[in-house]
């Protein structure tokens, strides 16, 4: 009986060999099936979008006071355009952020939280949650003839899953010019970038690229936020 079943297996194995030898397309067919499956999986894989870092500048010359009215929305940064994303963010400060810089960021966080459109929570984020890091850096402007200096830097960075984005935002202040950069208006601007707002051409927007000392979100800024966070 034992010997008999051993022979049966041998015959079966030989049979499989014959089938594979005489039907070699069976192997490519299996290969094709695997390839098709992995192609179908493609849209479900995460794509990493590049980080957009935008800056704000300080200047000695005042620009014309062009004010925005009506239902215009402040532009939205590319990684969050036409994307769904959670309105809850978990944030933390880099260890070297001094108290004065923390304070202006805290004021900005309070202002954005007061809109009811986003919710920023001081806690470490899970990998699938929106998060923001606040930081400082030093950057000296070499060209002294330039009337503008960089005061801050920030932007969103999104992991996208179909039309859903997980945003890792950054907001930083240039501590080479603390008298100009450690300001509520600059913190509002950089946090705006981290949350997905782009530059506005209106001087009453916190997202105007040259610091105007604006600390209150304009109607267009609020409209931009509402667009991003589906309000
Ligand atoms: Zn900017």
From TrEMBL:
Pfam families associated with the record: Peptidase_M10 (PF00413)
Acyltransferase found in the keyword field: no
Annotated keywords: Hydrolase, Metal-binding, Metalloprotease, Protease, Zinc
GO cellular component, one term: extracellular matrix
GO molecular function (one): metalloendopeptidase activity
GO BP terms in the entry: proteolysis
UniProt keyword Hydrolase, yes or no: yes
Xref: InterPro entries: MetalloPept_cat_dom_sf, Pept_M10_metallopeptidase, Peptidase_Metallo
Domain Peptidase metallopeptidase: 82-231
Protein name per the record: Zn-dependent protease
